[in-house]
Amino acid sequence: MPATEFQGSFGRSLLTLRRDQTDSNHHHHQPQNTMEAELDSFQRQVAEKFIDLNASAGDNNLLSLDWISKLLDSFLCCQEEFRAIIFNHRSQISTPPMDRILSDYFERSIKALDVCNAIRDGIEQIRQWQKLSDIVISALDSHRPVGEGQLRRAKKALIDLAIGMLDEKDHSSATSLAHRNRSFGRAKDNHSHHRSFGHFRSLSWSVSRSWSASKQLQALANNLNTPKPNDVAASNGLAVPVYTMTSVLLFVMWVLVAAIPCQDRGLQVNFSVPRHYQWAVPVMSLHDKIVEESKRRDRKNCCGLLKEIEMIEKSSRVMNELVDSIQFPLSEEKESEVKQRVVELVEVHEGLKKGLDPFERKVREVFHRIVRSRTESLDSLC
């Protein structure tokens, strides 16, 4: 969807930004020096990336695996441009104030590495849900008649799936679901199963048990201020792209925590960008949309805002309610309905299966690119 189709003031802002950029390309009366042009080009490129991300967020695509992968691609492109700027002006980064400003950026980037690790653990958690979906699909296979044993097996997997997808703070619902699961076996066995399922969740995180995604984001955002005019002047403008890249880094990590299950999720981060930055309007628009999504009544207690997670939740909930309503002997109409719901679950399952591996590779690439950028810049300081 092109920017001209955007509604309201945001659409007009994007249109103005594009027009101003075109005008600046054709009507500069005084030539910029090479460094000014390079730094201005970086700001425009960041703005364009986020304008495109706003456009691709339409049609209910925001926070899908596909959209977040595009966000990570945009981050990698910005990171590469930022890396080139630092390399081209490496003679200036070892002197005040750039040594301090750049050191602060790389300290924040280390915190981002922990977020990437936690997100990869969250991806593994989603894979466990896929395995439970597999059990449901296999038990209610559309090519075989549905029997009572198959129904019990599917019901047990659906309840385990519901427990696994609850936000870790929602203990009361987990206890209620575990209690319902007792009808499929001895109470002692099911209690043991629920405990072991929770034990698996606690072991699945590679970050420490005390680690908190919410606190990590707050540490990333702490004292992130626009560069002071004297720092901008003393750094010949280099303080501005560092601030830009730090803001992009924080936003990307915030989106990952919003979308993917991770330890002690929380989105309460003070994120604000002055509107005079070219990329401020599209970035803050995405931020506001995601905050609104998190406030939706049916998403408040979810373990992640990823669209595919919402689809699994809805599909498995409908299937669970259907299975609850089944009585034997099974009527042809009810069996047909079961088969149809299985087909829908398969579609959701296959979509997730197709997108999850490429997404994990992208997160891994972000991790390694941050490490490489930091290592190269520290070498330049030596």
UniProtKB/TrEMBL annotation:
InterPro entries: ROH1-like
Localization of this protein: Membrane
Entry keyword set: Membrane, Transmembrane, Transmembrane helix
Species of provenance: Brassica campestris (Field mustard)
Statement: the UniProt record of this protein carries the keyword Methyltransferase: no
Family stated for the protein in its record: Belongs to the ROH1 family.
Pfam families per record: ROH1-like
Domain of life: Eukaryota
Main location class: membrane
Protein name (database record): R3H domain-containing protein
Residue intervals passing through the bilayer: none
The keyword Repeat is annotated on this UniProt entry: no
Signal peptide coordinates: none
Membrane disposition: Single-pass membrane protein
Gene Ontology CC entries for this record: membrane
